[in-house]
Specification:
Layout: H1 2-33, H2 39-61, H3 70-94, H4 100-107, H5 110-120, H6 129-149, H7 157-180, H8 187-208, H9 222-249, H10 252-255, H11 258-273, H12 280-297
């Protein structure tokens, strides 16, 4: 029993560290990849590739070739449509209209929505004072981070904000649904079907909205290609897998705490590789966020 608890604790720590670090770099990779790929097609390629890798692994390496039941596929389809299609595609689209500071500020509200909605629906216990302090503090910290990087947008900024809120709604709804509909299917196989299903849907959406007409594979730069590979292997295979595992095995506020940590990583990576500047407000906001994440994760009121 002690071994099982220690193993779960080790996996939890690994997934938290992996999720914080991999998804913190995703925004920069998306920025570089969008220089050559249209947004919905980029999401399609990313998730179809990651899903195919998972399914090839489970079918041919693990020899698990049992297809999902009707009930399991219903869960897979709804989760993939809400989290990958709505959550992923609309996030990419919003990046065409608003800058990263605005995106970081609005995305910082995800933990608040997740915890409050889960509590109101009776899926989680009432958040403790420690969690509330961490959630509010994290949101304020992300706000400071957004101010330091600049909250601006062009003439279509309102459209960008609307698409981003649609993305958040899809991600929150899909995450809560997936956490409640945890099946006995192998996690990697379930993730493979989720990603492949969402990727195929976005592939056809990309065609319908005319993205293919302006895309030429010969014009894809090496930077965009490598960024897409990073999104596939680290953003989806590592990051998404760790997020779903945390959803299944930890309280909601721990799984969703990545939304506060990833802007800190994104700022550091942006400064190192994206030519972005860091000022005293940025440093103070990052410190505020780190303390807030500590308050969220240290909470012991809710049992795992």
């Amino acid at each position: 029993m002690a071994f099982i608890k220690n193993k779960k604790l080790a996996l939890t720590i690994f997934c938290i560290v992996a999720l914080y670090s991999t998804w913190g770099v995703v925004y920069l990779s998306i920025k570089f990849a969008l220089e050559s790929f249209p947004p919905v097609l980029l999401s399609s390629i990313r998730y179809m590739s990651a899903g195919s890798i998972f399914l090839l692994w489970t079918f041919f390496i693990k020899k698990d070739r049992i297809l999902p039941t009707k009930s399991q596929f219903t869960t897979i389809f709804f989760a993939s449509f809400m989290m990958i299609v709505i959550g992923g595609a609309f996030l990419n689209i919003s990046g065409l209209y608003i800058n990263s500071g605005t995106i970081a500020l609005i995305m910082g509200s995800i933990p608040l929505w997740m915890v409050i909605v889960s509590w109101l629906l009776g899926y989680d216990k009432k958040p403790s004072l420690s969690v509330f302090i961490g959630l509010i503090g994290g949101f304020i910290g992300v706000g400071g981070l957004a101010v330091s990087t600049g909250i601006t947008g062009g003439s279509n900024a309102v459209l960008g904000i609307i698409t981003l809120f649609i993305s958040i709604a899809g991600w929150v709804a899909g995450s809560i649904y997936l956490k409640r509909r945890h099946s006995d299917m192998n996690v990697l196989k379930s993730l493979g079907f989720q990603m492949l299903t969402g990727g195929i849907i976005m592939f056809f959406i990309s065609f319908v909205i005319g993205e293919w007409s302006g895309f030429h594979i010969s014009e894809v730069t090496l930077k965009a290609f490598l960024s897409t590979l990073h999104l596939i292997f680290f953003g989806s295979i590592v990051g998404y897998t760790c997020y779903v595992w945390l959803l299944y095995n930890t309280p909601t506020h721990i799984a969703i705490s990545y939304a506060y940590a990833e802007p800190v990583v994104a700022v550091m990576v942006g400064a190192l590789f994206g030519g972005e500047t860091i000022n005293h407000i940025t440093i103070l906001a990052c410190f505020f966020i780190i303390i807030s994440v500590f308050f969220v994760i240290r909470d012991k009121k809710e049992k795992k």
